[in-house]
Amino acid sequence: MATLAFHQQPPRQTPTPPPQAPSLSLDTSDLKNGAIPNKHLPYCPPGPAPYTQNAPATPPASPPTPQPEVRTSWVLHPPDAHPKVSASPPVFVIQPSTLIAAIRQSASQELPEPRYVFPWLHGLHPENQIQLAFFTARKRTLRNVPRCFRGVTIIKAGGNLTRSKITGALAPEEILSDVSHGDAFLEVDPREGFSVRNFQIQATKMAMVSDIIVYRDNDVSEKDLHKIAKRLSRAQDTWRVKNSSGEQELPKFHVFILSCPFQRFENENPELVAIDSKGQSRGELLDFCTYREGRGKQVLTI
Asked: What whole-number distance in Å separates Cα of residue 266 and Cα of residue 39?
């Protein structure tokens, strides 16, 4: 008789599951376990985003700060204290002492804030779209002529600056257009191209917002002196009418003639002479236009 033997299978063991990593949470309220919140995620409060029906998409632009007005008390302004040698166009005459006082007053006045004179000094020609887009794309008021500055520009009639030059003097052709174009200031704003310097136009630009003093040496006649002074006065009136508007009333500038020729001024005020009547450099006072500005351009270009 056959015997059947049954072998009981041992119970199967359930494999132990691998340990689970702790779940990540953005809840930063419980920091007991040392969890560090993700600093790169912006914090948003619970609930719907606040919404204001009339709120603008962007805040309104701040109103432009008005320019401070140019000082009214000036050696050369108002000009009524000085004799008038021409009524139309107006030209006045001053003594050497008044010229010296005007130079010192101009040199001691506070410089205007850059935002009031730039980018106007860089040159903003209305047809130069590149220059305009860079400087005045968002603020049209930056095109305005500065009204917070009153300078002094010295012009030597005849234009020969190799001798008999008062410090800082310019030739008439540096600021006046050719006679064939009428009595007007040069159009120096670059018509094309792009530049944020344009040092070469700034003396002419500053002459437009300055009182102008004209002098001569013995090589220039009194008649030619008066002729160039009248051209400058008419150029001032033309420029003022062209650039004034209902929103911007420009100050009025004037033209003056030095009562004595250069040789007398040279003997009495040698400290203000850059080049004497013999063509020799005095060297007592650096001429900004011929030395300092040229040196500055050289350094910036290196």
From this structure: 74
CB 150 within 8 A of CB 74: yes
pLDDT digits (tens, 9 = 90+) for 41-75: 444 555 555 555 555 555 555 555 555 555 556 89
Residue 87 tokens read as 């009524």
pLDDT of residue 265: 95
Q: Which two tokens mark 291? A: 């030395």
Helix/strand/coil (H, E, C) string of the chain? CCCCCCCCCCCCCCCCCCCCCCCCCCCCCCCCCCCCCCCCCCCCCCCCCCCCCCCCCCCCCCCCCCCCCCCCCCCCCCHHHCCEEECCCCEEEECHHHHHHHHHHHHHCCCCCHHHHCCHHHCCCCCCHHHHHHHHCCCHHHHCCCCCCCEEEEEECCCCCCCCEECCCECHHHCECCHHHCCCECCCCCCCCCCCCCHHHHHHHHHCCEEEEEECCCCCCHHHHHHHHHHHHHHHHHHHHHHCCCCCCCCCCCEEEECCCHHHHHHHCHHHEEECCCCCECCCCCCHHHHHHHHHHHHHHC
Cβ(228)–Cβ(164) under 8 Å? no
| Torsions phi, psi for 126 (to 5 deg) | -65, -20
For the chain, residues with pLDDT lower than 50 are: 26, 28, 31-43
Instruction: Yes or no: say if 83 and 92 are a contact pair by the CB < 8 Å rule.
Output: yes
Q: Distances in Å between the alpha carbon of 219 and those of 165, 264, 273, 279, 280?
A: 13, 14, 17, 13, 17
The whole-model pTM stands at 0.69
Q: How many CB atoms lie within 10 A of CB 122?
A: 21
Structure token pair of residue 193: 């191209």
Instruction: Report the residue count for the chain.
Output: 302
Tens digit of each residue's pLDDT (9 = 90 or more) over 219-253: 999 999 999 999 999 999 999 998 887 666 788 99
Alpha-carbon distance 96 to 112, whole Å? 27
